User: What shape does this take?
Amino acid sequence: MLKQDELKRSAMRAVVALLTIPEAEKSPLMSEFQSQISSNQELAAIFDSIQRDSTSANMESMDTS
Assistant: This one.
């Protein structure tokens, strides 16, 4: 089961990366995919976690102090 969990996390990391592409959120296919992720409690939790990690990593890399 651990391997399956890691595959889900990898897929969610790919989705988060795709969403950094300008205009990606306007794609009907991406919108439908995000809707499917949101409707699945487990995938939504993984997606949110990865998105938070990605956002905080981007904020840290922007720190120029």
